[in-house]
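User: Hi! I have a protein structure encoded as tokens and I'd like to know what sequence might fold into it. I'm fairly new to this, so please keep things simple.
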């Protein structure tokens, strides 16, 4: 980590298991760029997400507070800028603070703290997912579409990640020679579902060699009211047979390697800009 660094680059992945990296000891998935970053920095093995859900986690990351304190409980209560974010603190001190990519806050019309939001993705209609407010008697949710999307190909999310990466490369290139401090929050979507993976990355993993998830074939699963509630809502079993499940796992690994490639391109652009020695990367 550079000493007395004046710049900050945060790179975010989405729905990325902490063990799905080579540097975390995963025996299959290939993440050479994340591995190299970990090798020259710090790898936190006991870090925990503030929430198992996307929108509350992003609110917690923005504010530096626990979910129970800021009361952004679920995907229907997105961050709205009312609680001061770390981005706003930096901006108020004269630092150029930009976001590139997915935010999933309420709206770009709120003062979320950034000097500029580039290619932002906020929650739909400023509302998010109202189903997230429900605690019981969840409506039926058809997972057929999720199953149909599994496999090789392009999706709007992977195309979005390519655009985010290219934009981050251009933005970092524009900082070459700059003496002014900056902070960039580059937020990728992969390996978030749909599990539709670009062809060259899907080809890296053979579905037939994928293990089934722990507990997949168990006749008896833990008895818990919430597990039953969610299982009735996300009825994956109707469409994800063993073959489709193995294909989904291969696609997930492929999307993780795709995301790693995006990270590598962003870090290469930082290096080429001459700013790497003056930048903390998270």
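Assistant: Happy to help. Inverse folding works backwards from shape to sequence: for each of the 282 positions I chose a residue that suits the local structure. Here it is:
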């Amino acid at each position: 980590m550079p000493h007395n660094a004046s710049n900050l680059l945060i790179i975010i992945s989405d729905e990325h298991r902490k063990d799905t990296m080579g540097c975390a000891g995963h025996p299959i998935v290939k993440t050479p760029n994340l591995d190299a970053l970990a090798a020259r920095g710090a790898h936190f093995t006991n870090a925990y997400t503030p929430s198992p859900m996307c929108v509350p986690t992003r609110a917690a990351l923005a504010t530096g507070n626990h979910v129970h304190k800021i009361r952004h409980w679920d995907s229907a209560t997105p961050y709205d800028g009312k609680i001061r974010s770390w981005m706003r603190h930096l901006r108020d001190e004269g630092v150029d603070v930009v976001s590139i990519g997915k935010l999933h806050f309420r709206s770009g019309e709120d003062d979320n703290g950034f000097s500029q939001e580039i290619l932002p993705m906020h929650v739909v209609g400023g509302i998010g997912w109202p189903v997230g407010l429900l605690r019981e008697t969840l409506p039926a949710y058809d997972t057929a579409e999720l199953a149909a999307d599994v496999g090789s190909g392009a999706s709007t999310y992977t195309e979005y990640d390519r655009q985010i990466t290219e934009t981050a490369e251009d933005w970092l290139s524009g900082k070459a020679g700059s003496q002014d401090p900056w902070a960039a929050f580059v937020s990728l979507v992969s390996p978030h579902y749909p599990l539709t993976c670009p062809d060259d990355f899907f080809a890296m993993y053979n579905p037939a060699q994928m293990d089934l998830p722990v507990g997949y074939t168990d006749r008896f699963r833990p008895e818990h009211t919430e597990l039953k509630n969610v299982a009735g809502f996300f009825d994956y079993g109707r469409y994800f047979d063993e073959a489709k499940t193995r294909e989904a796992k291969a696609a997930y690994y492929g999307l993780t390697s795709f995301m790693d490639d995006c990270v590598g391109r962003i870090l290469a652009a930082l290096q080429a800009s001459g700013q790497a020695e003056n930048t903390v990367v998270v």
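A useful reference point when you look it over: The CA atoms of residues 39 and 47 lie 17 Å apart. Feel free to ask if any position seems puzzling.
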